[in-house]
Amino acid sequence: MEYVVSVSPQEVRGEMKIYSCPKSICTHVDWALSDIFQSKIDLDWRSQEIAPGAFSANLNWHGPISLSSRIVSVLSKWPKLRLEVFQDGNGKISGERYAVAPNLGIFRADINSLGETIVTETRLRSALERTRIENEPFEVELAFLLGTPWDEDLEPFRRSHQGSIVKWISKTG
After folding, report:
1. How large is the angle between the packed helices 138-146 and 121-134, nearest 10 degrees?
2. Are the C-beta atoms of residues 30 and 140 closer than 8 Å to each other?
3. Potential cystine with 67: which of 63, 82, 155, 156 (Cβ 3.0-4.6 Å)?
């Protein structure tokens, strides 16, 4: 099923993958997304094989540049959700990747057109400074810059998530 709403001229494409959501909040997630998109959303929830009692779903969308951060901001309030939100770049901005995992919180990174994490000079310098101050190996800081802890948490769910039904939606303003 595809949701269609008028699209603004500064739109981007995005994708949300909910890897694990307790059954008790699936409807609440639909309601929250309906509020964000100002259109009724009923995700096709699928049983998550590796987390009994949990469900997964996908949503592809078109919308304003800041939409991915709004989705993450709203959905991350439920501490048991595992999800990723991707926003494609549009020539004016880099793409974005958000990852949310219990006990880790939110990870955000700019990504290039190949989906690779972009680590800026400023972030690298800050990581080097933290390793000096906290006397920990640079590899630890680098892992956090790249989102490795989130990838390690989400990877089993990603593999189990293959074949989920995808929905498309567009959002204006």
Report:
1. 140
2. no
3. 63
Q: pLDDT of 48-94, one tens digit each?
A: 999 999 999 999 998 888 899 999 999 999 999 999 999 998 877 88
- Catalogue the E-assigned strands of the chain: 11-22, 46-47, 54-64, 82-87, 95-101, 105-111, 117-118, 168-170
pLDDT, tens digit (0-9, with 9 covering 90-100), for 94-108: 899 999 999 999 999
Rounded distance between C-alpha atoms, residue 141 and residue 124, angstroms: 9
Closest by alpha carbon to 58, among 17, 100, 14? 17
* DSSP at 92: S
Half-sphere exposure in the Cβ direction for 53 (13 Å, CA): 5
Q: Which of 20, 26, 28, 27 is nearest to 82 (CA)?
A: 20
Residue 23's φ and ψ, nearest 5 degrees, are -55, -35
The yes-or-no verdict on residue 162 having pLDDT over 90 is: no
Residue 2 DSSP code: B
Contacts of 35 (CB under 8 A, 6+ apart): 74
Sign of the CA dihedral running 119, 120, 123, 127: positive
Would you state the structure tokens that stand for residue 108, as one six-digit string?
Answer: 């955000």
